[in-house]
Amino acid sequence: MASKPHHDAEIDAMERVENQFIFKPRAFNIVWGNDRRFWRIPSRSSSSSQSINNVEKVEEVAELVQVSWLEVTGSVTLKKSTSYQITFTLSFKEKASGWSGSPVYLMAKVGKKGRYKWRRLTELEKENLPKQPTEVPQSNSPFVVDVEGDPPDKRLYFGLYEVWTGKWKKGLRVHGAIVEEIGKPKIN
To answer: pLDDT tens per residue, the chain (188 residues)?
Structure first.
């Protein structure tokens, strides 16, 4: 076991491309992520690009072995008066278990002292969990966070959580996340 049980986000695993922040699995803070009994986090060396037939392919996945406390979080610096859409890409191993009756929430807030916005990810409560990488929430129901005005703490904190049931879960694969700048907040 590592000296610290939790995986701290590695800044070089997050990339800014135009209006998107692209998070690879190492870019997240993962509770129990440094303990191989609970998570398999790709190392820096295994995350390097591989060239196959002159095509660069990188498959980086954080794999949940087992936890009763799911907390996978990230953060980005924001622009004032802008809206952001958050999407995770997830899949499940064939023998994933413990997810029935264990609601997973996507939560986000602007600033450490901000108020959480949250959504229960009902697409992860199906009997047949997705085996192929799948974006959640789905594009027909995006999760959008509005940054109103010019807040003093310009960081967006977001993550996936299931910390309430105490049930052991396994088989989740976290492929990454995208935080996309989508424009000015809508005025109600």
So the answer is: 557 899 999 999 999 999 999 999 999 999 999 999 999 998 876 544 444 444 555 579 999 999 999 999 999 999 888 999 999 999 999 999 999 989 999 999 999 999 999 999 988 887 779 999 999 998 889 999 999 888 889 999 999 999 999 999 999 999 999 999 998 766 65
For 18, residues 6+ apart whose C-beta sits below 8 A from its C-beta are none
Separation CA 104–CA 177 (nearest Å): 15
63: nearest Cα among 172, 156, 144, 146: 172
Measured CA to CA, the distance from residue 106 to residue 19 in angstroms comes to 21
